[in-house]
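new request in #modeling-help
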Amino acid sequence: MSASGITVAAPGVTPRASAPALWLGGLLAGGIWLGAAAFTAWLPDEIEVGRTQELALLAAVLGGLAVLAALTSGLFGEAGLKLRKAGPWLSVLGLALIGWEWLTAKSGTLPLPFFASPQGLLEVYLEDWPRLGESVLRSLWLLLTGYAIGAFAGFVAGVALGWSKAIGYWVHPVLRLIGPLPATAWLPIAFFVFPTSGSASTFLVALAAWFPVTVLTWSGVVGVNRNYYDIARTLGASQTFLVLKVAIPAALPQVFVGLFMGLGASFSVLVVAEMLGVKAGLGWYLQWAQGWAAYGNMYAALVVMALMCSGLTTLLFKSRDRLLAWQKGTVRW
Amino acid sequence: MVSANLQTAGSAAGMAVGIHGVSHSFQLEDRPLPVLDDVSIDVQPGEFVALLGPSGCGKSTLLRLLAGLDQPSEGRVVGDGADITAPDPSRVLVFQDPTLYPWRTVQANVALGLEARGLLKTQGHRVGDAIRLVGLAGFEAAYPHQLSGGMAQRVALARALVNDPRLLLLDEPLGKLDSLTRLSMQGELVSLWQRSGLTALLVTHDVEEALILAQRVIVFSPRPARIAAELVVDRPYPRHRDDPHLVELRRQALAVLGLDS
């Protein structure tokens, strides 16, 4: 880009070598989104769907924001630079919207009811948000309580297995027999053993998270460099200190691998449990939408579910990065 | 003085160490593997003794016994007249690997011993003293992966010294350093030992290092280790590698080790 050669600064603005005042990628993305807005608004719909004008408005607002960012991102320093990296993605997403809009609403190549148009999705969010929102909250509650219980139990079991031979003697065979069994296999039993389908699902989600967290915590504790213990012992450390201040911090990177795997396992159990037994949550919403052949609602719920799972995983990685800042070369999520 | 801060008032600086007829063996799958064979050594308080021998001969095991991490199969190890049966902060061990805790900063690594004994609140100032003593002031907030090998080993030394030890057990502490760092740290070890007055036992397989640092060099045979010779290095510090007396002692030590071709 030849923009780097231009060093004439606006009055009052410090010139930045790394951040030229104008962001061309942002202008391009803005143009594409504005184009998508025009395409949506002015081309007649082949298939009768509502909310076309709202979709055009949304695309126009996004395009406007991208143009605004393109003109001003130099003023925002770090945040502006971060935004610039997203430029190609913003452009491609705009193009994807145009393509999607063309294939569904404008040409009807992908027919209703199996395929939803962008405005169809927008309509679901605008009209069915109370039910969708409640489903999200129900799912989150079930997932987080189950996961918290399972992760905590797994962590404690893993440390105990790694630390105590006596506990290992009793827990290890149980772990080997029950752990590899998919938690969903317990579903039929859980639903009649537990008083409510909610508590049964919490148990299943907890069980799904428990196994990987236990195994990886255990292997983390067992794999701790023996010299770490010798050093602490010569310096006067008690058994409690060895567990809490040596074994657990040393095992933490492994624990997080277990937490990550456990989270994935709990997602899948959550959805299955909600589809088969619980009368709430995103899994139930998916099932319900399919029952009414409301495919737009299904896609909408899938998007929300993807955002929820990705968001929770991001949260887990962020907390790991914070706790394990001392580690080098970990995966950037 | 920094060195004065590292000693509690009233306690004699160096520990007298006695190793009386110690034999030790490890239990392998079916048969015992003898590593020490009837070893007896007396170390005066404040003395610097090097244990020299081929790799894997059992010298390190002797240090573990003195640290109280293991018990001898036969014989007694004694510190200031009392049997050594458990680890104690008065006897500290520095390994060949710094074995710093990677999740702790330099400051927190050095504070380990005080923290483990619940002394951090009252004696926390000693952490800074120890870090200054090894010349790492300004690196308190660094993590181990940010340090060079020599710096990491200095932190390990500070972590040991902060506990006000009376016996310093050095298990090839300079073994993994590059040769230049190694030379400068040999000098630092000597001046540290001279200022603090504590008893030092150094395990090494480097003849020259033993002769530069120690007042007495005990030469071990290959496994199971037994004492093959004892060399008194009666030369003032700082010593020079080309001192004819040291060159002669070096020749003798190598002869005992069977390397005088």
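bot summary: Residues 179-196 of chain B form the longest helix (18 residues).
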